[in-house]
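Researcher: Quick one. two chains, 222 residues in total.
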Amino acid sequence: MNIFRLTGDLSHLAAIIILLLKIWKTRSCAGISGKSQVLFALVFTTRYLDLLTSFISLYNTTMKIIYIGCAYATVYLIYMKFKATYDGNHDTFRVEFLVVPVGGLAFLVNHDFSPLEILWTFSIYLESVAILPQLFMISKTGEAETITTHYLFFLGLYRALYLINWIWRFYFEGFFDMIAIVAGVVQTILYCDFFYLYVTKGESGSNKINPA
Amino acid sequence: TTAKEVKDEL
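Model:
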């Protein structure tokens, strides 16, 4: 464990908690893409099956359980409890265009052709594009609530910190995982446009306006 | 080395 991975995990946890609390407190999921949240729940489910097979550390197990729990709680709030506030008309990204290619790629490019490894690879590829429905929805509505932009900021920051963690681990431990690194670079690049807007419009403090 | 056997990252 190094400081970059720890702050990355905490940034990820912060994003997940910010979103869950926002929906819970405002009792509304307006402006939130339920599709992205379903994809994240799928990412955690397929990646953390090793909860059943191996124990790494208390930290590792605890964080995985929190991530999975919060992901499903968020999906529940969006599609069940606060369903009336779900903005389905703007959450129209065709997720099958993400899941099918990612599923195929996981079969073709992986470290080991075993079920657990293919599911892990699928989850890594899926995570890199899981935010697209959310970014697409914001570009359609043309704006995002401030709290939603904080959620996206921490979510984008987490994988950027993981990239530094992988540089650190390669240099000090000789460890690297090309699949995770390439997917992580793609994932972080997708946030670049948002990061620019978040920083440049941060001063205004008003609703962020994304280019349509 | 390539990816570690044990996946210790979240």
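The longest strand of chain A covers residues 143-144.
Researcher: Thanks, that's what I needed.
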